[in-house]
């Protein structure tokens, strides 16, 4: 009986020792799948609140997460996969199959009040039981256009609200090739008076729009209506300015806002010079005589 107890204790001891010496052969909790860890680079631009990561252009393998998180939460089968990281908004439509992002067009016009649009694309080889790391340099696919109008207030001038339009604007962009796409549409800059900027008999009106680009084959025409009041007599004046030459380089350097400044005295005008703003923005100054 004593020998049987000793044998039992010996067997239990062997089992305990062998279980203690055994180690987990896997590196992660997902040995049959991989994950993606990533760091996004925004080039000193304030990042958005969240972004979306999509694998293989499939909405079923996409997830929107806060920009403070750096691990894609979904498990991925081992193999080669296409990766898209992008910002999204309700005003942008993204076709994952064609890699085209667009703004909804209503009666030939788009909303110029969209958040900046960023993308990153790549191809990754995903391994099972492994977290593949990448650094994503986010590419800005939209650009800010600021327009400043200096108007000599000799006739009690006011800006007729909702009349400004800018033509020849791109409604779509292919974020794989970075090409802007037709159809060409209009955007309505919303000019507002700048009380702080108005002085010495000059009224200042400002508008800002966020655009995917301009269509180079089209002309970019800014038109709006000014209301002049002199001795109780009012007159609407339609003003049209051809910005085609000024916006020729708009589709490049989208990280840098472009600012156009215009001194309006009458109706006929031409570009007089180029300027560089203090913040590095590109400014085009022209004068209407």
Please explain how this structure is put together.
- This is Lipoprotein.
- It comes from termite gut metagenome.
- With 289 residues, the protein is mostly beta strands.
- The protein has two domains: 34-140, Immunoglobulin-like; 143-288, Immunoglobulin-like, CATH 2.60.40.
- It has one helix and 21 strands.
- It has one helix at 2-21, and strands at residues 34-41, 50-55, 62-66, 79-86, 92-95, 100-103, 109-110, 118-126, 130-137, 139-140, 143-152, 158-159, 165-174, 179-187, 192-193, 202-211, 221-230, 233-242, 258-264, 269-276, 282-288.
- The strands form four sheets. Strands 5, 6, 7, 12, 13, 14, 17 and 18 form an eight-stranded mixed beta sheet that branches.
- The longest helix is centred in the N-terminal third of the chain and has 20 residues, at 2-21.
- The radius of gyration is 30 Å and the shape is elongated.
- Mean pLDDT is 81; it is low at 2-22, 266-276 and 280-289.
């Amino acid at each position: 009986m004593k020998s049987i107890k000793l044998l039992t204790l010996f067997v239990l001891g062997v089992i305990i020792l062998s279980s203690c010496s055994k180690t987990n052969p896997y590196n992660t909790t997902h040995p049959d799948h991989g994950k993606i860890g990533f760091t996004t680079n925004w080039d000193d631009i304030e990042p958005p609140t969240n972004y979306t990561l999509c694998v293989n252009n499939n909405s079923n393998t996409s997830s929107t997460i806060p920009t403070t998180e750096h691990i894609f939460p979904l498990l991925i089968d081992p193999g080669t996969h296409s990766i898209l990281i992008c910002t999204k908004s309700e005003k942008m439509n993204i076709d994952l199959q064609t890699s085209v992002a667009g703004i909804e067009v209503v009666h030939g016009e788009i909303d110029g009040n969209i958040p900046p649009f960023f993308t990153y694309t790549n191809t990754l080889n995903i391994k099972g039981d492994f977290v593949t790391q990448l650094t994503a340099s986010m590419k800005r696919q939209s650009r800010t256009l600021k327009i400043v109008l200096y108007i000599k207030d000799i006739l009690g001038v006011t800006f007729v609200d909702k009349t400004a339009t800018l033509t020849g604007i791109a409604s779509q962009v292919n974020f794989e090739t970075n090409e802007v796409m037709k159809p060409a549409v209009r955007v309505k800059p919303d000019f507002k008076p700048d009380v702080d900027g108005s002085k010495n008999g000059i009224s200042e009106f400002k508008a800002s729009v966020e655009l995917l680009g301009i269509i180079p084959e089209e002309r970019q025409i800014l038109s709006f209506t000014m209301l002049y009041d002199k001795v109780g007599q009012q007159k609407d004046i339609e003003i049209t300015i051809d910005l085609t030459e000024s916006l020729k380089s708009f589709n490049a350097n989208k990280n840098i806002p472009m600012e156009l400044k215009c001194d309006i005295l009458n109706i006929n005008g031409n570009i007089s010079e180029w300027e560089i703003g203090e913040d590095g923005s590109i400014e085009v100054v022209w004068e209407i005589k």
